[in-house]
Amino acid sequence: KARTVAATNMNETSSRSHAVFTVILTQRTSNLAAGTTTQKVSRICLVDLAGSERADATGATGMRLKEGANINKSLTTLGKVISALADAGASRRRLSKLKKAALEGAYIPYRDSALTWLLKDCLGGNSKTVMIAAISPADINYEETLSTLRYAERAKRIVNKAVVNEDATGKLVRDLQEEVAVLRARLLAIDAKAKDRKERSDDEEDEEEETAEEQAAHVAAFREADAELSAMKDQLQASEKLIADISESYEEKLRKTNAIQLARERALEDLGIAV
């Protein structure tokens, strides 16, 4: 509703500005057993770009002409950013690991316009981006259509590898909890296997006397299983202790952050500033 539109010779409702609508989604997962809370954050950006235009075709004058110039300037900067990202992606696929690391610091002109700065994370950050090119089949719009298709062709060459935006501490705790679950399952399996061996050994002793070699083999098997069981118990205890330490430090940091925030709010209230 707040977007500016005006009539030109090419369009009765021509957009005189770009529109960016951002939705931030936060997912918090609480583990009551471990007493931990993990958080994942996602941001969805819906962008509607105003089309580039030629002043002689639109017949724009005064304020409309200035608006068109600003639109074209921001789109030109966006084109430079897209080209730089596309070239970096193509070079990254060809270069060695050492040169790839150097390429990570390549200059991308995000700061050259407000539009590209707003779209920084959408274009070259930890994101998945879809661009829809709106073109016209009319011959009078040939130049605009060609320019739009060039945009789309360059944008296709941008390569991003998106990963889940998850709190590092929460991810570590989750991985450790999965490891603990696996260790517990293995402990149960080994314990059941040891009991089964013992029962079979008792049955065999009832039927007939074992030879010395068989007795030695059974003793060795039991000792091996017992050693493996002991090692896994130690590993399980270490993982559970690490989870407790990490969770405690995370909760302590959260308490300190909340205390600092509360102190700031009180200080602002003392100055007569409402929060």
From TrEMBL:
Transmembrane segments: none annotated. One of its GO terms (cellular component) is microtubule. Residues 1-158 form the Kinesin motor domain. One of its GO terms (biological process) is microtubule-based movement. InterPro entries: Kinesin_assoc, Kinesin_motor_CS, Kinesin_motor_dom, Kinesin_motor_dom_sf, P-loop_NTPase. The keyword Ligase does not apply. Residues 202-213 have a biased composition (Acidic residues). Keywords: ATP-binding, Hydrolase, Microtubule, Motor protein, Nucleotide-binding. One of its GO terms (molecular function) is microtubule binding. Residues 195-217 are annotated as: Disordered. It comes from the Eukaryota. Belongs to the TRAFAC class myosin-kinesin ATPase superfamily. Kinesin family. This is Kinesin-like protein. The lineage of its organism: Eukaryota, Fungi, Fungi incertae sedis, Chytridiomycota, Chytridiomycota incertae sedis.
